[in-house]
């Protein structure tokens, strides 16, 4: 929201763009309805057709910012002829006068951590369940073998039951 922006503060807008034509870009941060600029950027960087180009715009926010919280990055001044296309990625608006590499937003990182934590807990639960099943099978086999060896002889039925327990352990 707009509350993230402070008056009289330097900001840098950067992004990668690939255009189907040679052109230049201008940019500003403004209200969503097209009025009330928040940050004006004075640069007009050039783009070469067919090449990913990093554009960097530097500007200072106005001394008095609009009270509304809706805002958009408005790109203008580029070729808008029919058939002209633009691909834009890794857009980043940051405080200061230096463009840094793209990074995910903190809330995205928090969500990824929560997802990874849940996946780890699920995997740990599954592993514990498998270990418990194996321990039970080993215990059952030991109990059965102890009973089968009491008379010192393992008959065919006992051998078959022991084989079944071994197969359970190998699953």
Commentary on this structure:
This protein is an alpha+beta fold and 171 residues long. Helices cover 34% and strands 28% of the residues. It is built from two helices and eight strands, in the order E-E-E-E-E-E-E-E-H-H. The chain has helices at residues 106-148, 156-170; strands at 10-19, 23-24, 26-30, 37-41, 46-47, 53-61, 72-76, 86-95. The protein has a six-stranded antiparallel beta sheet with strand order 7-3-4-6-1-8, with no helix packed on it. Helix 1 packs antiparallel against helix 2 (156-170). It is elongated, with a radius of gyration of 33 Å.
Largest sheet, strands/sense/barrel: 6 strands, antiparallel
Strand and helix order: EEEEEEEEHH
- The first-to-last residue Cα distance is 54 Å
Tally of strands: 8
What is the rounded Rg?
Answer: 33 Å
Ranges with pLDDT <50 over ≥5 residues?
none
Within the largest sheet, what's the order of strands? 7-3-4-6-1-8
Question: What percentage of the residues does DSSP assign to strands (E)?
Answer: 25-35%
């Amino acid at each position: 929201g707009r509350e993230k922006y402070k008056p009289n503060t330097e900001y840098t807008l950067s992004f990668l763009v690939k255009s189907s034509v040679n052109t230049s870009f201008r940019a500003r941060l403004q209200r969503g309805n097209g009025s009330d600029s928040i940050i004006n950027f004075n640069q007009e960087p050039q783009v070469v057709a067919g090449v990913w180009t990093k554009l960097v715009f530097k500007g200072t926010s106005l001394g008095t910012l609009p009270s509304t919280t809706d805002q958009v990055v408005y790109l203008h001044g580029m070729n808008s002829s029919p058939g002209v296309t633009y691909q834009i990625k890794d857009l980043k608006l940051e405080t200061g006068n230096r463009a840094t590499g793209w990074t995910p937003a903190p809330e995205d990182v928090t969500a990824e951590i929560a997802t990874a934590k849940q996946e780890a807990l699920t995997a740990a639960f599954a592993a514990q369940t498998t270990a418990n099943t194996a321990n039970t099978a080993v215990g059952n086999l030991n109990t059965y073998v102890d009973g089968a060896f009491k008379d010192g002889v393992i008959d065919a039925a006992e051998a078959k039951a022991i084989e079944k327990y071994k197969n359970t352990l190998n699953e």
